[in-house]
Amino acid sequence: MSYASLSRPRVRMAPFDGSLLRAAVLLLAGGLVMVYSASIAIAEASRLAGHQPHYYLVRHAVFLGVAVISGLVVFQVPVALWQRAAPWLFLLGAVLLVAVLVPGVGREVNGSQRWLRLLGAGVQPSELVKLFAVLYAADYTVRKAAFMGSFRKGFLPLFAVMMLIGTLLLMEPDFGAFVVITTIAMGVLFLGGMNWRLFAALVVLLVVGFVLLIWVSPYRMQRIAVLLDPWSDPFGAGYQLSHALIAFGRGEWFGVGLGASVEKLLYLPEAHTDFLLAVIGEELGFAGVAVVLALLGWVVARAFAIGAQAARLERYYPALVAQGVGLWIGTQALINIGVNLGVLPTKGITLPLMSFGGSGLVANVAALAILLRVDFENRELMQGRAR
Asked: For residues 53 and 42, what is the distance between their CA atoms, to the nearest angstrom?
């Protein structure tokens, strides 16, 4: 070895993916601004909010603060500990879903019983179960790696557990969360090496199952009819979707200006939660929506890249967790975007990292903290091997 090579300073890589962190911060900050803009009229009209225009801004800022603190704590936990805790966390999630359905314990809002009151705050267990499902599905897949080609030993046990969770979610009802959690479990199994023929057959069965669930439910069938022609009943079942489409139409290329939305003035229901993207489209136009989609796309892409890097380092559980987080964020974002644009039937699914809602925000930030932890451990291992 030459003297020059000995004297050359070592290049120490960054502790984690800065571009992923920046994208997440931009989404969270943009969400804070847009939630305030979308919720002013709702807060001023609401007696529960005390007619204070900044009511939802303050609450969302508190949620964001709790989420960031939770994320900092979660980042300190090694991924190996998450693997050991995964079955217990998933069991905790199931218990919380049961508690939601207990009369007097669960809270009903807008016809759905999805909330618990804990420590003076509303908690939506289905949001936490999404994170627990990622951790548990990855752990199950690693433990059952030798049986991924077997329907009975590889797939059936996880399928039975997920159907139990799905049944609890449908009893709330929360069909959107059921779809997201099912996608997470199936996706992680496939990424973990499930036989592709078996996977394809199961996808077909799931599609048939989803169609049957819609077919036997009158209100879901009504949503499909509205999806095909929202203008057939613009003041009834098609009201929400028709106003979302009007918002996008008004926004055109560059929007009507921040704070200048008309649809948020009590025309568009759930403007600060499920239909936040429609307000973004109206105020910031196609350009604003494109930026949001690009940032979400980058988060998903980095999740899969970090997972692939972990797999190359033979860290299979962290790899599946990282890609499971990518599946979760990507699937939920696609559903929310599809609902806002009238491509999918209306569901109570929020836009990840942006929409108002404490449980969803905390769960999303915790998932990103685990993702950054996977990346951190990848880099530490590579740095150690390079020495």
From this structure: 8
Query: Closest Cα to residue 361, out of 122, 87, 7?
Result: 122
Largest distance between two CA atoms of the chain:
80
Please tell me whether residue 7 adopts helix, strand or coil conformation: helix
How far, in Å, are 254, 319, 328 from residue 338 at the CA level? Answer: 21, 28, 15
Mention every residue, 6+ apart, whose C-beta is less than 8 A from residue 87.
136, 139
Amino acid symbol at 179: V
User: Tokens 């098609």 map to which residue?
Assistant: 238
SS3 (DSSP) at 6:
helix
pLDDT tens readout for residues 219-274 = 666 667 666 667 666 776 678 888 999 999 999 999 999 999 999 998 998 899 99
Q: Looking up tokens 């009201």, which residue turns up? A: 239
Q: For residue range 283-292, list pLDDT tens digits in order.
A: 999 999 999 9
Contacts 24+ apart (CB under 8 A), 268-273: 268/240, 268/243, 268/244, 269/239, 269/240, 269/243, 270/240, 271/38, 271/39, 271/42, 272/35, 272/38, 272/39, 272/42, 272/56, 272/355, 272/356, 273/350, 273/355, 273/356, 273/357
**How many angstroms separate the Cα of 382 from the Cα of each of 12, 367, 373, 375?**
11, 23, 14, 11
Q: Distance between CA atoms of 91 and 82, rounded to whole angstroms?
A: 14
Gap between the Cα atoms of 231 and 252, Å rounded: 20
Length of the chain: 387
